[in-house]
Q: What sequence folds into this?
């Protein structure tokens, strides 16, 4: 941890600060990590991010360390078993969507060579660096997240609306929304 100024959304929770300092806004091109964030952001729908962040290790165990092929191979009996796991968000639609989203993720990998190629193609492989002064300026969604969300929904993805999509883009560094006073601004 550091005593530097951070984006205000992470407050003083050590887990939130570690996530902010080491991951959030760092450009990610690793498909396994990108799939992890598709899963986690989808699980977060309607909940706070810290709730899902605290369950992250449980998600790793429950979903084969985010091995997209293993997750895509899960079936209805696996869904029933996962719904008994108190370490994850036990919502049938979210669990089922994790499996179907894995299958659609694989389809995109096959079509584009990688999911990374697909998602980064929306920004010509260059992160969007915003210049916000405060958290209140950061939008919940943008034209970009609207476009990507709409495209992914057409491809069958669930729990990937424009707000979740924008949070995903921020998390994986496609969009860098660190505020200008944050020590991470300009580092990612």
A:
């Amino acid at each position: 941890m550091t005593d530097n100024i951070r984006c205000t959304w992470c407050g003083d929770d050590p887990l939130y600060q570690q996530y902010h300092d080491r991951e959030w806004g760092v450009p990610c091109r690793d498909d396994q990590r990108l799939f992890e964030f598709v899963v986690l952001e989808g699980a977060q729908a309607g909940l706070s991010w810290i709730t899902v962040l605290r369950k992250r290790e449980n998600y790793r165990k429950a979903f084969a360390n985010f091995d997209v092929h293993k997750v895509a191979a899960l079936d209805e009996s696996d869904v029933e078993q996962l719904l008994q796991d108190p370490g994850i968000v036990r919502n049938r639609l979210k669990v089922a969507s994790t499996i179907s989203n894995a299958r659609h993720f694989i389809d995109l990998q096959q079509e584009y060579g990688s999911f990374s190629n697909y998602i980064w193609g929306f920004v010509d492989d260059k992160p969007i660096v915003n210049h916000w002064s405060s958290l209140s300026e950061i939008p919940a969604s943008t034209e970009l997240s609207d476009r990507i969300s709409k495209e992914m929904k057409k491809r069958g993805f669930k729990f990937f609306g424009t707000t979740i999509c924008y949070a995903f883009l921020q998390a994986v560094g496609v969009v860098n929304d660190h505020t200008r006073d944050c020590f991470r601004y300009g580092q990612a």
Remarks:
- The chain has one domain: 29-176.
- The first helix runs from residue 14 to 22.
